[in-house]
């Protein structure tokens, strides 16, 4: 069963550059791991120095292997001194997934 983890990372303004670089390295490393479908960090638009991490895995075993792995350990060690408080994380097991598609073809003028 697909597993999606969603977390909030609360950074310090004084360590922003170092934290962002650490998150870039962690995401790039995780994306190479078996069972990783996606791994992304994004910045919360209305809260300074707050980030969201969303990662999707083939199953619980893949996620567990990630948490036991060297890349996650390096990320956790790198966080020392960069956060004012612990991050929050929730893990969802996904029973089904749907990609809604409109009935009409998209007008190219509406594309990004």
What does this entry show, briefly?
The protein is an alpha+beta fold and 112 residues long.
Describe the fold and architecture.
- There is one protein chain.
- With 112 residues, this protein is an alpha+beta fold.
- It has one domain: Alpha-Beta Plaits (2-Layer Sandwich), CATH 3.30.70.
- Helices cover 29% and strands 29% of the residues.
- The chain contains 3 helices and 4 strands.
- It has a 4-stranded antiparallel beta sheet.
- A hairpin with a 6-residue loop joins strand 2 and strand 3.
- Helix 1 packs antiparallel against helix 3.
- The chain is globular, with a radius of gyration of 16 Å.
Topology, element by element:
Blueprint: E1 2-10, H1 16-30, E2 36-43, E3 50-57, H2 60-68, H3 70-78, E4 88-94
Antiparallel strand pairs: 1-3, 1-4, 2-3
Helix pairs in contact: 1-3
Low-pLDDT runs of 5+ residues are none
What structural class is derived from the secondary structure elements? alpha+beta
Helix count, per DSSP?
3
Would you list the SSEs in sequence order as H and E?
EHEEHHE
For the terminal residues, how far apart are their CA atoms? Answer: 33 Å
Please give a handful of descriptors for the protein shown.
alpha+beta, Alpha-Beta Plaits, globular, 3 helices, 4-stranded antiparallel beta sheet, single chain, 112 residues
């Amino acid at each position: 069963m697909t597993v999606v983890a969603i977390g909030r990372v609360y950074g310090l303004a004084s360590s922003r550059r170092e934290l962002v670089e650490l998150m870039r390295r962690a995401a790039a490393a995780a994306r190479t791991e078996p069972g990783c479908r996606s791994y992304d960090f994004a910045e919360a638009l209305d809260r300074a120095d707050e980030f969201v991490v969303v990662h999707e895995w083939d199953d619980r075993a893949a996620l567990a292997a990630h948490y036991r792995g060297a890349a996650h350990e390096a990320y956790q060690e790198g966080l020392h001194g960069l956060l004012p408080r612990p991050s929050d994380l929730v893990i969802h097991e996904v029973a089904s997934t749907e990609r809604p598609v409109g009935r009409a073809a998209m007008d190219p003028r509406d594309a990004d």
